[in-house]
Amino acid sequence: MSLKVEFKVQANWKKDLLTDRKNYKNHTVSITGKPDLKVSAAKEFKGNPEFYNPEDLLLSSLISCQMMSYFYVCQKHKIDLLSYSSTAEGVVEVNETGSGKFIEVVLFPKAVIQNEKQIAQAISLHHEAHQLCFIANSCNFKIIICPTCEVEQ
After folding, report:
1. For 13, phi and psi rounded to 5 degrees?
2. What's the gap between Cα 129 and its chain centre?
3. Which residue from 27, 49, 139, 148 could staple onto 43, CB 3.0 to 4.6 Å apart?
């Protein structure tokens, strides 16, 4: 039996009546009970560089889901995870028509663990976490994971 969970997000845009300009790049994303996000197109697409952009948010979703899946598998395999950090780098291919898509994302997670004898296992668990990640399972582009692990000194 599968479980279905629904999520709801709202986007709002309004013409700037003070300047009588239509800025189609800037809008607000609202989720009930959470702070609003100011969103725009990426700077490369003439958006406001001070606001989040959809590409940032997609990478943020992917990196966060991978991290939480990793926490789950570490707990399941009794690995004492002390800290975790990660960066994500994505490549978007833009076509002549203006359409585009992500073609590749590389994640660079770094785990710090308690037990030196578990380093190899801690690194290998990134694959299991990737298989569990809801966001990664929803993507149609290549995702590469380049994990590192060390023991707290």
Report:
1. -140, 145
2. 14
3. 49
